[in-house]
Amino acid sequence: PRLQPLVCQKYPRVSRPLAASNPLDLHIAHEAYLTPSDQSSLARIRHCSAEMVKRNNSSTMLSQEDLLQIGNHFTKLGEIFTNAAKQQSEVVESTKKVPKDPNAPKRPLSSYIMFCNDNRDKVRNQHPGISSQDISKILGEMWNSINEVEKKRYELIFQRQKQRYQEEIREYEQLKNLQQRTAIDPMHETFELANSFASGIVKFD
């Protein structure tokens, strides 16, 4: 038996054969998020799907091999669009990130970063033309070789800056919350007044 009658018998509410509409087009919204490899796979599947639809609409019966290939195609499609949906979700999440407030207190630099900032120019002058990657490598070796007294000095600076940052961030959050409440309260009063006019509690003279 051909595929179309079987589909129509199994699903009597289907008014037309499934072959008349391409199920691959249902996922076209995801195509912007497909990798080049998945785009290539999808193109091959579409080509094979179109060929099978032509054969199914003719007098040619679909073989067991054809049906197996269809199953493999849908398995691959599942993988392709799962990957695309994941990529789409990551893009959406990245667009949801709240922009940083330029007025917010800045986090203190770690003791290691402070050490690197103090010695980067020195390393660059000692090794003209050296790459940034090699500079970072040398700085890492220098940090590991300095004595504990020197490391402790940088750590104490970091702890003082960290304490100051924590105090500043508390003040910043308090001020931010106050500004938000100040902005919301007039809006709330305006809404309540409009509600009163609408309900007839408050009337114009």
UniProtKB/TrEMBL annotation:
It comes from the Eukaryota. SUPFAM superfamilies: HMG-box (SSF47095). GO terms for cellular component: nucleus. One of its GO terms (molecular function) is DNA binding. Residues 155-182 form a coiled coil. Residues 105-173 form the HMG box domain. Gene3D superfamilies: High mobility group box domain. Keywords: Coiled coil, DNA-binding, Nucleus. It is found in: Nucleus. Residues 105-173 bind DNA. Belongs to the NHP6 family. This is HMG box domain-containing protein. It comes from Smittium megazygosporum.
